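Lab notebook, bench 4. We co-purified these components, and the gel suggests they stay together. Before we commit to crystallization screens, I want a quick structural picture of the whole thing.
Request: model the full complex, all chains together.
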Amino acid sequence: MARLSFDLQHTDISSNARAGVITTDHGSIQTPIFMPVGTVGSVKGVTQQQLVNDVQAQIILGNSYQLYLRPGTDVLEKAGGLHRFNHWDKPILTDSGGYQVFSLAGTRKIKEEGVTFQSHIDGSKHLFTPERVMDIQRSIGGDIIMAFDECPPGGSEYGYAHKSLELTHRWLDRCFEQFLSTPDKYGYTQNLFPIVQGATYKDLRKQSCDYIASKEAPGNAIGGLSVGEPEPVMYEICDWCCQHLPKEKPRYLMGVGTPWNILECIGMGIDMFDCVMPTRNGRNAMLFTTQGVINIDNKKWEYDFSPVDEGLPGEVSHYYSKAYLRHLFKAGELLALTIASVHNLSFYLWLVGEARKHIIAGDYASWKTEMIVRLKTRL
RNA sequence: UUGGCUCUAGCUUAACCGGUAAAGCGCUACACUGUGGAUGUAGAGAACAGGGUUCGAGUCCCGGGGUCAAC
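Here is the predicted assembly.
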């Protein structure tokens, strides 16, 4: 039972992209990697078997805010942790709830101590402090757990971003103090990743990168991007952060993004991604394919009996036709949501796998440029 | 057969006294980035065939359909 390690195997000669292997007590992860989001302990609409066999997911997310509210840490502890509760034997990463408090909760009050907020489920009042969030994530039992941060909205003013960043850093100290003084609960090692903030301001981001790096955590995350700022700004800040974060540790860009976002950011040196887009947009009939973006709800697919995506190796994308999947969406069938989610996740995992191959082959930059044009095509 | 009620967009319903037709759902598109089967935005689409009164009719009259009740 050991701390998470990162074996950096290849650095692309044509870009800053890297290929590596992350090792945890629940197995290893080939990077760059995309991590499906499993908010309440399930990836919406997708079974664990489908995640393993069709999607070929190597690690999934869980959400502290959601799991704390329901079913509650008591149930998770009695179950023996989330891995046993949802029967997922591979690595799990849990988000701290910092983002959810900002995006989901109704009224919230941010103070030095922590955040008081109202549950989006029943309106009940709760207090999240860095210590409390560490305890919750200890109970959930993720292999990777995240620091409790404040995620200021895109376009935040410098003054606010600065104050927010300082608070996030003070909270980070408390997270580490609590994390290091509490034991692993289920016999395997948990790893705490700190999160860079600083909105769209380079000096704040650099300051944050330096502070985060000083924690010497086994991995580092970049938060507060794709929260409303223009895409070029997101790229610029991501690139900047990559330049200032340790090379020998995995870099995790939180909550991003579109397939082309992922390829661009891999080129900057990001190793890990998570995003709700493949599943959420999938449930809303948006398919990401090897040929471009499809809105399967569109009338033009009514009589198209070709497979959802012939270019993808996985079975799901060949098994069903576009016309059939459109029909299922129109009919409001549950199966539509599942097929779209499994397909999109398969595509995302295939995409990062291809990226890895081209990093190792040393032609990532040219492959990426060509690929992005194709993936952005609206079919 | 007689009497009452009723007829407006694909569906369900609005519109002061007669002044030039709105909405929800559905449909056609678009948006969605540490979750949202949600939501938002844009668009297409209508008066019971017909006739009359009137400067002007969804609105009044004749005629037609539906429905309920009595015979």
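Chain A has a mean pLDDT of 96. Worth comparing against the SEC data before the next meeting. The longest strand of chain A covers residues 5-11.
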